[in-house]
Structures are given as structure tokens and as C-alpha cells.
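User: Hey, quick favor. My workstation is busy. Could you predict this chain's structure for me?
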Amino acid sequence: MYIWLIGLHVTAVTLWILGMSAAAILISALDPTTAAEEGPARLLRAMGRWERRVTSPAMGLAWLLGITLVVVGGWGFEPWLVAKVVIVLILSALHGKIAAGLRRLGEPGARPVSPLLRFSPLAVIAGAIAIVTLVVVKPY
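Assistant: No problem, here it is.
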């Protein structure tokens, strides 16, 4: 059963990170003026639906399965796991900012999103790489 939990966790994390990456790239590519045009506005609506139907539930499932894996696997407070959880918390917060940015850009008369979100694609990828490295290498 444990191996199935791992597989489901990895699947949920993959959907979460891919959805975040797509939304982050879209946000970094659009400004409020461009986002109001018909083509980009349609893309923003579609990405918003994907965010609500796939990315956000995948994040919740990844958290649920991750906590289950820690309990069932008896991992405890290993230093690599604590570091991973800190990164996951940061990615979860970034997910909220990206989701809000998508909504904001999709509204009529959109306000500009935070300029820091322009770097969100890099942050998502860096976080994912750091997590995979911690899980595979377990450096401490």
C-alpha cells in the first residue's frame, strides 16, 4: 500500500507543479493591457478553470498524501524532511499568490500583479528541484 501512496503523491505533486508553472508563465507573459485582449483573456479564463479544477485540488491531495506518507512511513522529524516541508510551505504560499494573480488579470480593468510574480516560474522550478534533491539524496 505504501508504494501506491507514493505513486499517488508523486502524481498529485506533478499536477500541482505543472499547473503552477503554466499559470506562473502566463502571468509573467501578460500585463493588464494585453490580458484584456480577447485571445489572452480567453486563455486566462481557461487557466483559471484549470487552477480551480486541477491545480488547487492537486495541491491539497499532495499535502494530504504527504502527511499520510510521513505517518505511515514513520519518518518523524528528519532534517531533510523538515527542509522539504519548509519549501513546500513556500510553494503553497506562492500558489496562492499565483492564483490571485490569475484572478486579478482576468478581471475587467485589471490591476497589475506584483512585479515579483514575474520571477515565479523560476521560483516554482527551483523549489521543485530542491524538493526532489532532498527526497532522493536525503543529505542530512
